[in-house]
Amino acid sequence: MFCHRIRKILLLLAFIFTAPISGFSWGFFGHKVIQQLAIYGLPKDMQVLYHRHMALLVETAVRPDERRNADPKEAPRHFIDLEAFGEHPLENMPHAWDAAAAKYSADTLQKYGVVPWQVIKLKERLTQAFFRKDLDSILYYSADLAHYIQDAHVPLHTSLNHDGHLTGQTGLHSLWESKLPEQNLSAYNLKHRKAQYLKNPEQEIWEVVRASHVLVPQLLAIEKQVSQNFTQDTKYTVTERNGRSRKTYTDAFATAYNQALGTMVEDRMRAAAEQTASFWYTCWVDGGKPKLDRLLATPRTKAESKQLQQEQKAWKKGTLQEKDLLLTKIRISLMNVVEWVSSPFV
Ligand SMILES: [Zn+2]
Questions:
Q1: CA–CA separation, 90 and 82 (whole Å)
Q2: What is the DSSP letter of 298?
């Protein structure tokens, strides 16, 4: 058993030193924060289950990004390159998959990304999971559905110029969605509205895509404008990672860019949390509003209720981070690992 433990510790160290800090979308940090915030927007009847499984939901918020390495079909589910569909893509694109595929061909849609249809597909799967009262599926599809909704809130996930590479602004993707939230989260107002029932989820997700896409010219222009106050040396830094050097924006540039963007990033994060909660809630209602407390392995404790109350209070006051109540990657991993290392089996 001792050997097993040593092996586990070595595996853990390997994980810590090789795990990416940010992923393909919202960064791992952003997805996880949004996932946690969404739970606070749910009605109490749903929170009993979602809060009990909060660590799992937060941890698996990035599973679709992790799948991209293994599954070539995964990548297009995270974006839609709207400019590929002509001058007025939002007016011309049919919302329903069949109509859109008839107009542009399924292959073309796959090539330029399918995020809105992926959201609708998973909305159906989660609704069915609620009908079946199938706990594993509820948790699995809640996490996956949330991920794609959150991706659709990132402006650069709706553009052919997804990394600023077509306009000489390469690296803008991870600056906007990873570095800025990581650097500035404590200053963000992330209190969103309670979950709403979505009468027309298809229209809702297309509205999300539209709201993201209209921000693209603005975030590109602001980068150009802020760049005027920087030289190449003060704007970029070169970092070594896995034997490869990468040019990324400096902290000083990120600070100036964030200031110039105003509340753009926090607004999209807040909207993403609210829509995540609303989609979960809508699936639950459409899935027959099953009693979720009956799916708990053990009854809810007073301590759990108190903990949730405390977190919600901090969320409303904007002090989650300050009070160390955010289940970010490091904290969850360490909690899970302590449990894992001390368990008898590998
Ligand atoms: Zn993604």
A1: 8
A2: S
| 301 Cα to the center of ligand 1, angstroms | 35
Alpha-carbon torsion angle 150, 155, 158, 159, nearest 10: -150
Neighbours of 197 (CB within 10 A): 11
Distance, in Å, from the CA atom of 148 to the CA atom of 226, rounded to the nearest integer, reads 30
**pLDDT, average across residues 318-328:** 88
Q: Say how many C-beta atoms besides its own lie within 10 A of residue 346's C-beta.
A: 11
Q: Which residue, among 304, 342, 311, 316, has the nearest Cα to 327 in the 3D structure?
A: 311
Longest CA span, the chain: 64
What's the token pair of residue 54?
């909060």
Residue 157 CB partners (closer than 8 Å, separation 6+): 25, 78, 79, 80, 113, 115, 151, 212
- How many A from CA of 132 to the centre of ligand 1? 27
What pLDDT was estimated at residue 293? Answer: 96
pLDDT in tens, 199-241: 999 999 999 999 999 999 999 999 999 999 999 999 999 888 7
Measured in Å, residue 65 CA sits from the centre of ligand 1 at 5
Span from the CA of 298 to the centroid of ligand 1 (angstroms):
33
CA of 174 to the centre of ligand 1 (A): 12
- Please say whether the beta carbons of 279 and 119 come within 8 A: yes
Sorted by where each starts, the structural domains of the chain and their CATH numbers stand as 2-215+264-289+311-342 (1.10.575.10)
Q: How far apart are CA 60 and CA 143, in angstroms?
A: 6
Torsion of CA 116, 122, 127, 133, to 10 degrees: -160
For 4-57, the DSSP string reads HHHHHHHHHHHHHHHS-SS-SSSHHHHHHHHHHHHHHTS-HHHHHHHHHTHHHH
What is residue 185's three-state secondary structure? helix
pLDDT in tens, 113-142: 999 999 999 999 999 999 999 999 999 999
